[in-house]
Structure formats: C-alpha cells, structure tokens
Amino acid sequence: MRPLTSDDPRTIGEYRTLVRLGAGGMGVVYLARSAGGALAAVKVIRAEHAADPGFRARFRREAEAAARITGPWLVPVTGADTEAREPWLATAFVPGPSLAEAVDERGPLPVATVRALGARLAGALAAVHAAGLLHRDVKPGNVLLALDGPRLIDFGIARHEGATALTATGAVLGTPGYLAPEQASAGPVGPACDVFSLGCVLVYAATGQRPFGHGEAAGVLFRTVHGEADLAGLPSALLPVVTACLAKDPADRPTAAETERLLRGDGTGWEVPGLAAVAAERAAAALALPDPEPLPLAREPAPDPARPTRRRVLTAGAAAAVLLTGTTTAWLAARGGGSGSGAGAAARKLRTYTIGLHTDSTGPGRAVGLAHERGARLAVDDHNSRTDKAFRLGLRVEDDAGDATRALAAADRLAADPAVLAVIGPTADVAAAAVAGRYAKARLLQVVVAAGHTPPDSVDAGYQCVLRPYDSSLVSGLIDHLANVQHVKKAVVIEDREDPPGSWEIARPLRDMRTGRITVTARTVAADTDSFAPAARAAITAGAGAVIYAGTSPARGARCATDLAAAGFTGAVLSTGPVLAPAFLRDAGRAAEGWIFAEAYTDPTALPAAKAFTAAHRKRFGAPPATWAAEAYDAVGLIARAAATTSATDALRGGIPQRVFRTEYRGITRRLAFDSSHLVPREEGIFLYRIDHGRARFLGLYGSVR
Fold first, then answer.
1. CA 673, CA 509: separation in Å to the nearest integer?
2. 529-568 confidence digits (pLDDT tens)
3. Half-sphere exposure of residue 650, counting CA atoms within 13 Å on the CB side?
4. How far is Cα 681 from Cα 117, in angstroms, rounded to an integer?
5. DSSP track, 590-648
6. How far apart are the first and last CA of the chain?
7. Inter-axis angle of helices 256-263 and 191-207, to 10 degrees?
C-alpha cells in the first residue's frame, strides 16, 4: 500500500480512494471504500489509453466478462463504469498475497496445498470457459491467496472465443513463461491455452521455478514452443496431471473441468505457510486506514477584498511566482531560505535533483556505457546553463562492469541515495529483472535507453519506462520496408540456429506475415556449420526478391553476406539489431553493400535537431557522438521535463514515474511518448540504415523511408 499522490482521484464513482495498491501499464489500482463502508480494489484506466477505441473495447470486454462469471474462486465485481473518461472496475478486496509473493518469500508450497490450489483454479477456469470466455493470462501474479482458498483475478486480456484480436498480426498477449505454445507463436487459441498456463502455475507453486526457465522473452517463448518443460523437483504425485496440462498439442490436454477432477481431493489441504499472519496484517492495515475526508459541499466565502487575509497574500505570492517561472517547482524550490539578492542568490536557492546513471564503464559494454555518460553529462550541463531553470541537475554514475552481482550492488547504492530522483540504465542487458525489482521497491523511476532485452514478468511496469522498441520488435520495420518500399513478391528468411531463440523471434513474424502480396519461405542454417551457401542458392532458385538474415551474430551475418554475394544474389538483403557492428562491416567487406538494417538508435550527425548537440560533443570530447549518446541526452531532458511539472513533495521519487509516463517530450532523436506498456511506440523508435561505401548510412524512421 502506498499513499495517494496529488494526481490521484479522491472519488471514483461511489468509491472514496484510500491508498494505492499498485500501478501498471493500463492504469492504477486503488484500495477504496464504498458508500456502505465495504473495501474494494478499484482499477482505473488512464484517459490517454481509454481514448483509443480498441483499448476501451478491450476494457469494456474485461468488465463484462468479469461481471458475468461467478464462482467461489473468482473475485466478484462490485461496480464499474466503462464509459467514463477514465473507465474503472471495482472488485472485492482480498487482503492475502499473490501466489508469486508467497512463493518468492517462503518457497514452494506443500504438495497437498498445490493440489488444492490447482483444483480450485481449474474450477474457476471451468466457469470462465463455460461462459464462452478465455482468461489468457493465468500466472502466479494473478492468483491471490485467501484464507479459504485462491482467487483468480485480472481479466485484463480475457476475450470471447473466436473474437478478433485487438492487436497487430504476430503480436503475443500474455506473460512469457506461462503462455501455451499456440499463444507464444501467435496462433489460434482456445480454452486449452488456459489449462497449459495452469500447468505452468502448478510447477511454479510446487518447485519455485518456471517450467521453461527465466531470461529474455524470446528465449522463454522459443523453449515453450520447441523445448520440453523442466519438471525436475516436481513431486511425483503431481507429475501425471501437470504433464497432461503441458502437452504441446492442445487436443492432448485435459479440459479445465477434467483437470479439476484429477486434482480434487477430500476438500482439505489448503495450508499455506505464513498466510494467516500475512492476511491478518494486510486486513488490519486496510481496516486501520482513516476514513476519507468528506468532500467540500461549497466554497468558503470570499474574504473582504479590502482586507486580504494572510492565506490570500501567500496564495497571491505563489501565483505570481508561478507566472514568472512557468512552474510550481520554481516557487517551491525558491522557498529554501538563505540571504542575499540578485541572480547569484537565486541560483544558490535552487534545489538540485540528482539523476543516477547505472552503466557499464569498464566491462565488455564500456563503449555504450561511455556514450551514455557523455550524452547525459552534456544534457545536465545544458540544463544547468539555462537562465530560466527552476532547479539544478546533478549526475551520479555507478559502474557495474557488466557483472550481474555488481549490477545489483550498483542499483542498491543508487536506490539508497535520497537525492537520486530517477535512474538511467543499466546500459547493458545484465540482471534485468533483479535490478528492476530493486528500483521498483525503492519507488525509483528506471529509464532504459539502450538495453534490448524484453523484461520478464517480475518487472513492476509502474517504475520502468523504455525509450526504444526491444530488439524483438525491430523486424516490424523490415516488414514495412518489404511491403511498401521493396515491393517484392517472394522473400526468404535465413534462420541462423547458432542462436535459436533470437533467430526464431525475428523469423516468426516474417513467416506469419499476411500482407497478401509477399510469399515468405524459411531456410535454416545449423549452428555447427559456417556455410550459408546452400541457403543462398535456395533463395536464388526460389526467385526471391529479398533475403532476411534472422540471426544475432555479426560474424555469421558477414558470412551470410559473402555467401549470398558469391552465389550471385542481387536482391535486397535485410537484418536487425546486433548484427550491425564493426565486425560485420569488416568481415563482409564489399558484400555488405546495400544491406538494410532496422535499429533502435539514431545517427545524431544526420539529424538537424541534433546539430547543436553534435557540435558540443565534438568540442568537449573531440569526437562525434557514439551510438546511444544522443538517446541518453534525451533521457535526461525527459526526466527534467517531468520534474518541472511535479510538486516538490511528489518530485522526491514518488511522483516522477507517472509524470514521465504521461509526458510527451520532443527530444533531439525522437518524440518520447509512451504506450500502455511504457514503451516508446514502434513508429517513433525504429530506424533504417543502409550500408553505403563500407559504413552505415542513416535513412530515418522506417515509416518515412519511401
């Protein structure tokens, strides 16, 4: 439970808000009290998301689905308004922890408890399926533990069977690690996908581990589709039913009702270690919250204008300061005391907000880390040189050297510093989930600039935003280029199995592409060979107008380029992400000419908006800005913009995340505005490059390259 901020509503329909229970991509969940005094969890969707007709339709479907389904293991809906400017849904408040919290803190559950958990969740899913609906996101975080049994919550992506998805072709809804293979490959889904997810939940509850491992989403999804579940440590009493639930073929899985019968015992066995104490503590904390202050019935009488009150004088002074500076922060910061007058005295009174930079300065990613630091320092200096600034900025750099243990220590140091307002980084994919968890626990905004991973389910979306599309999304830029620029009729995807998850993540949306104009076929190259010649000859034989290298290795990408050139292929060649590296350009030589790459970074030397930044970088550091320096510059500007529109009280961490998520900031590299997952939309963050004369030439945003 966290206190309400100045931006939070005090009333939602008939409910009076008490505290925040959590925040995520769609909105905020509040603990509230009804007019009759009952406690409820009220989920509110932010207006900017609700303005999207598709998004509102999805929420309307959620509310309707949740209201239609009843059962002892489902949380009942107590109210909703799906047509409000900020639509909301209220459910009964369950004071117990989630299954994820319980297992993370106390370890796996006893076998009898897991059987009872599974039987009751299967019963809840049977009720969902009987209503013609799917849940589609059964996971430990969506299971609350009450004293009498579990409760399945959050129909945020529930939908009717056979309903048209509200997402783009190839999109995956749900949580990697708990998705069925048909969901992971964006195929048709049915009730059996929920049963598969239930099997994953049971493995987690009984062992504390996910059956398809942890790590980047691409790897987890790949193992879900192509690998076998890791059931080591699963008690033998649970093995038959879990194995059946995790069958790759949906037709081989039991129904939810059959699963309930397989797991049902004598009605006992619901004993969760420590649950009674946790539930009692949370219930007591909720009940102890004071009643909300009554709403004012009328404005207080206006004071006599001839005799202004002290309150009126103070208010007038504050308003004048706001008009002069443009922000309330300026007035609040100027109240810091001290003596003197003039510009020097005013500068001494300004508060300093420190931005943390979590970087790899000395390890394998030191080039990217150094680029971040240089871009951030230029941004801080530019801000502090402004005469109209309302506060000063500072920069604190913590180096993790690309090491997971040091990354956690760096996060702890930044989180423990009360002067740090927000953190940029880490600059590399290191201990992503654990580091994000440390920052979320400290209510510290984490701005990811360069790291290309997809965060796992345990990351709290309420405290992290990402200024780039993930590597797995870059292929969208290639699809657009193939369809609208190259105008090819046939394309071949070369899947490099040296990195199966990475190649599969790139190849999957290409193979599933349904433009109606392009036929896409796939050729695979085994990890134990460095020859791409057979695949090159196959592309020529197929009459392909384009080849897409689906891999992550610059060296093997270069070999693919040389083998395509040697075979005489003259069509377009495209790839994404980490392949575009000095090693690729060096090893491929002339064979790299004309290759098109989709990347998440810009070339500031080619951007008119970054002309002053590029000149300042050259002057200070003696070189043009390296990759990601300009994006780090924009990250500082984004944080500063959010801080300038946040009260001094809320600016100390708690108010910054929501301000950032709602801010639209025009940086020197791109427009920064965030979608429901706190990511910069793809159309603002995928850029194309073409290899010309041995170097990567910036073409621009993929949608503008025509």
1. 25
2. 999 999 999 999 999 999 999 999 999 999 999 999 999 9
3. 21
4. 39
5. GGGTT-EEEES---GGG-GGGHHHHHHHHHHHSSPPPTTHHHHHHHHHHHHHHHHTS-H
6. 50
7. 30
Report, as residue numbers or ranges, the catalytic residues: 137
Residues in a beta bridge with 573: 547
**C-alpha angle 633-637-639 in degrees, rounded to nearest 5:** 120
Give dist(CA 684, CA 703) in Å, integer: 9
Q: Are 115 and 239 in contact (CB under 8 A)?
A: no
Do the domain assignments include residue 518? yes
Give the residue from 92, 110, 143 where a domain finishes. 92
Question: In whole angstroms, what is the distance from residue 34 CA to residue 51 CA?
Answer: 27
Identify whether residues 124 and 234 lie together within a single domain: yes
Name the residue among 407, 572, 592 with its Cα closest to residue 486. 572
Structure tokens that stand for 134 in this block: 């799917």
Q: Give the CATH number for residue 34.
A: 3.30.200.20
* Separation CA 630–CA 610 (nearest Å): 8
Determine the 3-state secondary structure of 224 from DSSP: helix
* Residues near 672 by beta carbon (within 8 Å), at least 6 away in sequence: 467, 634, 638, 663, 664, 665, 666, 680, 684
**Top-confidence residue, 598 or 61:** 598
> What is the domain extent for residue 511?
472-599+689-704
The two three-digit tokens of residue 235, written as one number: 């008690």
CA 85, CA 188: separation in Å to the nearest integer? 33
Q: pLDDT tens digit string along 186-224?
A: 778 899 999 999 999 999 999 999 999 887 777 888 899
Cβ burial, residue 37 (10 Å; 0-12/13-18/19+): exposed
Q: Is the same domain home to 63 and 145? A: no
Of 42, 57, 92, the residue that ends a domain is: 92
Dist CA 407 CA 446 (whole Å): 14
| 118 and 21 both lie in a single domain | no
**Do 155 and 87 fall into the same domain?**
no
